[in-house]
Each structure stands twice: as structure tokens, then as C-alpha cells.
Amino acid sequence: MFDNLSDRLEKSFKLLKGQGKITEINVAETLKDIRRALLDADVNFKIAKKFTDDVKVKALGQDVLSAVKPGQMMVKIVKDELAELMGGTFADIKLENKPAVILMSGLQGSGKTTFSGKLANMLKSKKGRHPLLVACDVYRPAAIDQLKVLGEQIKVPVYTEEGNLDPVKIAKAAIQHAKANGNDVVIVDTAGRLAVDEQMMNEISAVKKAINPDEILFVVDSMTGQDAVNTAKEFNDRLDFDGVVLTKLDGDTRGGAALSIRAVVEKPIKFVGTGEKVDALDVFHPDRMADRILG
Ligand code: GDP
């Protein structure tokens, strides 16, 4: 196994001790190490380069070498900068309206339906809300059944219209249903496809226009690495979403997609999925993700 970044930097700085302040030349090797760690974590190349350039400017201004553990100080600079780039602090979702309407977007298999159930469960058990789940994936009966099963499991009602192939009508009717039945959050699960296509984008744009959601969340599988960034960009260009949900972080991905997506679409990551079970959901902590990316 390789040393972690902290150990590697400690070693490279040991060789430099006694040379006084950090200079362009003696920091080059260190920055290469940092860039390698980012690339290993699947951070997009351009973003890794810009990041290390920014860190260089910060480090050059500081007397890192005179620190007792210069490597650790450098790691701290890098971690703080990474966390800052990924959002600094936790970004909440907008729930003021009654009902608050949340629209899910993302590719098929990204974890939209699972996340819809997790979010409903979290809002119900931790915030005392009364969510309604809405099945708008009209093409896949299995997806509707999956949401129904989830709803039963967490004891949250699920709105479906068997045989109706118009997601706009279903979504609008679901909001009326929520108003009539005291549901104060409406979570709309939509159809995804295996790749971005025009029909899917038109459909979800039409749903957005019809129901004017308080929050549009883009759900993405963190294991998809660089592809995640392109997908995020395409969805954001069309939907101007409010936040990102990174799923499957229980896998062995280092989570570089978090940094890349944030840098490319400039939207906060709000939640992370950490398993298949309905309670495997966390709010996003930029500092923890920075630790994970750097290894
Ligand atoms: P959708 O097509 O976007 O609605 O995706 P699904 O919610 O059906 O999820 C696709 C698959 O990913 C299912 O087998 C889920 O159990 C699984 N899944 C979703 N979220 C997570 C997660 O955070 N971790 C793991 N390990 N699996 C997940």
C-alpha cells in the first residue's frame, strides 16, 4: 500500500528542512504529490491543476518549512482549500413552503428512487414532516413498484396513477392530493434513462415548469467518476438544479466526483448516499469529503 498523502508530504518536506521558506522550486514536488492524489481520486485533470495552482499561491505566502511538521501544515492548507471549494458548510434544502415540492433528476440507476425514500424517511423521522412520494417514472412499472415498497417500509404514502403516461399531469395532481391530505413535503421521483437524451430532458423540464419545485436535486452515482461531471453539466444546463446528491459512497470510490462536479456546475452537494438501506443517508460534510479525497 502507498503512504497516505500526509506521510508522503512529511517525507518530501524532511528533505527540504533548513532551506527556509517555501519557494517555487521546493514546493513543485509537493504539488505534484497533491495533484497525483487528486487524480487518483478521479478528480478531473483541469480541476486538479487549477486547484494545485491555487494551493501553490497560498503555500508560497506561508512559512510552512519552519513548522514542526511542515507536511501536516501543508496537508491542512490543502484540506481547508478542498473543503472550501466543495462548499465550506452544509447547504440545507428549502422546505418553507407547505407543501414544499422537491423534484428528483438524474440517470436511471443513479439512485433516485432509493434516495427519494431515504429523504422522505429522514424528513419524517428527524423533522416531523408528512411527506408524499410521487411516482412519475411512467415507463417502468418496476420503478413504481419499487417506490411503493419503499413507501410501505417507511410508512409514507405514495401517489401513483396506474396507466397515466403523462408525468406532468401526475405531478400536478399529486400536489393537489398533498394539499388535500395534509402532506407538507412532496417528493417527485422522475424517469431517468441510461444516458442523457432529448425526450427525458424535455419531459423533466416540462414537469419543472408545471410544478415550480422549491428544490431540484440532481442524483448521481459517485462510482461513475469523470462521466458524473458531464452528466451533471447536461442536467444543470437544462434544469438549473439546486443541489447534488452523491450516491454509493459506501463503495470504494475516493469521491473525486464531488470536487469536479462542484467546480463545474457550481452547485452545492447536499446529501450523500452510503448504502442500499433506507437510513443510509448523510448530509454532505465538505471536510470529511476532503479527507476522503486526499486518502
Ligand atoms: P434510479 O433508477 O435512479 O431510481 O436508481 P435506484 O434507486 O433504483 O438505484 C439503483 C441501484 O443502486 C439499486 O440497486 C439501489 O439499491 C442502489 N443504490 C442506490 N443508492 C445506493 C447507495 O447509496 N449505496 C449503494 N451501495 N447502493 C445504492
Q: What report would you give on this structure?
A:
This protein has 295 residues and is an alpha/beta fold. It is built from 11 helices and 8 strands. The protein has helices at residues 5-16, 24-40, 45-60, 70-85, 112-127, 141-154, 167-181, 198-211, 226-239, 256-265, 286-294, and strands at 100-105, 131-136, 158-159, 185-190, 215-221, 243-247, 269-273, 281-283. The longest helix is centred in the first third of the chain and has 17 residues, at 24-40. The radius of gyration is 22 Å and the shape is elongated. The termini are close together. The mean pLDDT is 88. The protein binds guanosine-5'-diphosphate (GDP).
Residues in helices, as a percent range: 40-55%
Q: What oligomeric state is this?
A: single chain
Major beta-sheet overview: 8 strands, mixed
Low-confidence stretches: none
Apparent shape: elongated
Rg over alpha carbons? 22 Å
| First and last CA, distance | 12 Å
- What is the N-to-C succession of helices and strands? HHHHEHEHEHEHEHEHEEH
Heteromolecules bound: guanosine-5'-diphosphate
Strand content: 5-15%
- Rounded mean pLDDT is 88
Protein name: Signal recognition particle protein
Family: Belongs to the GTP-binding SRP family. SRP54 subfamily.
Domain SRP54-type proteins GTP-binding: 268-281
Keywords: Cytoplasm, GTP-binding, Hydrolase, Nucleotide-binding, Ribonucleoprotein, RNA-binding, Signal recognition particle
